[in-house]
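Listing S7. Sequence submitted for prediction.
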Amino acid sequence: MSATTDPIPVRALNQVTYCPRLFYLQYVDAVMPVNEHVEGGLFDHRRVDAPELKNKTRTDRGTATSRGIALSSEALGVTGVLDVIEEKNGEQYPVETKHGSAPHDDDGKPTVWDNDAVQLCAQALLMEESTGKPVPRGYQFYAGTRERVPLEFTPELREQTRGAIARCRELTVLDAPPDPLPPELRHRCFGCSLAPVCLPEETLYQIGHPAPAEIEEAKAPPELRRVIPQSDDGAVLYLQEPGSSVGKRSEHLVVKKDGKEMSRVPMHAIRQVVVCGNVQVSTQALETLATNDIAVSYVTGHGRFIGTFSPAPTKNVSLREAQFRKFSDPAACLELSKAVVRAKLSNQRALLMRSLRGEEEARGSHEPAARGIYGLLGVIDNQTSVESVLGIEGQGAALYFGEFGRFLKQPPTGKRFDFTTRNRRPPRDPVNALLSFAYAMLAKDCFGAVCTVGFDPYKGFFHQGRHGKPSLALDLMEEFRPVIADSVVLTLINNETLTPDDFIMWRDACNLTESGRKAFFAAYEQRKSTVITHPVYGYRMSYARMLEVQARMLASFIRGSIPTYTGFTVR
């Protein structure tokens, strides 16, 4: 059965009436995040959804009540499970429960929201086909105000319901979601569980359709308002105790070593788990983490990112198809490569000037390396191939790391760090060991961001031809290397959080000790939680959230929803 003939869930008619973009993301891309409103709806349906009550009829005071009745119609092309069907005085009618509050007309009487009315009417159409009897009315129960509102199934409402079914069919064959709601309906975006995925304000700003002036925010670009959370919920759990094991007990992860419990962490407080080195994670724990959409990333004790155990890939195949088409276009790859390298050079220059500013020159822009990178920024638009952009990026890295040793403050303790050149595989000194470890952590987070959005992380536009490497994750991390990874390294060294004693040498390789890694993880997570201003949209969010926002805007560009992709730069 094709997507255009599969039966449409009745609840989808509610979404498509409320917002066609919401329908597309939820039923075509199969993205279903949960927020407090969704959780509240599930709580309100707990009695309706109880397995012991489904398909059973109870009679009380002359009213027969049946719960959880599944109905389907090939003629209508819809299917659904009805919350409640009541029968009284020979008349049957549907009753639907919603988490929110009922709207009220000018006389103060409760009414039914348009999208709820369409869903309830579709249930009536299913009942009429199943029983052969007319269903003239139904009832909508709003748990927020405890109001039960009658609804007449008029010819106009029935026609609107059939129109919603047709609209669903039209949307399911599109390669990209429709534009966000127009300004007069933009208030529906606030509180929507899909707002962090949809990014309605950001998308409209990019394509030149701003929000209404009454919802402007200070210091934001004209007519743009943030509708996504500022930061991610939950913490990153780092597991690095050699010989320890992780299991599941009730709703907690339990870390043990030598049979003794070391720590216990509630599952709801975790958004990601990072396993570093010789740590065993039980099958039961992995299954529970996957069920709760919590990814588990593995890195070696030396800091090399191995991979991520995550839930099943997102179902939005159309995005991956668009990704492969776009990244097969040399012009598109060149445009995107310029965007990320431009952002990386700009951020390298900003960190360089900030680190080398002196008393006479507040910004450090007099530095030859700063002037050199500025010159590279001026010629990047003239490049005609990804290879030449790669050359510009290499020249910028040489200028930047040529001065990186000067970024390091010399502590009064005399335990100084020296840096002369970038080296890796393996890193041969403490500074390079820190840089490599920081880049591994950033690669892990960028890998998670592109997978969350639905990309294939191994098909990139800039780091091409690197077989076995997560090229797209490496592409995304370029613009964040200076502002996240390099910044963490400088903080750890210049604040004397780490000393040379926190490193060990083995043959030609330098690695962090266990205590050194612990200090690094703390500093890295603190940096990711730092709130900064988005250079395009003007509102504030954490670096951790910024990674996903940039990945989602890249997806919008690939699908053709926005005209350009803009890399992240610090102000």
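Caption to Listing S7: primary sequence and predicted structure tokens for the chain studied. The radius of gyration is 28 Å. Residues 34-46, 209-224 have pLDDT under 50 and may be disordered.
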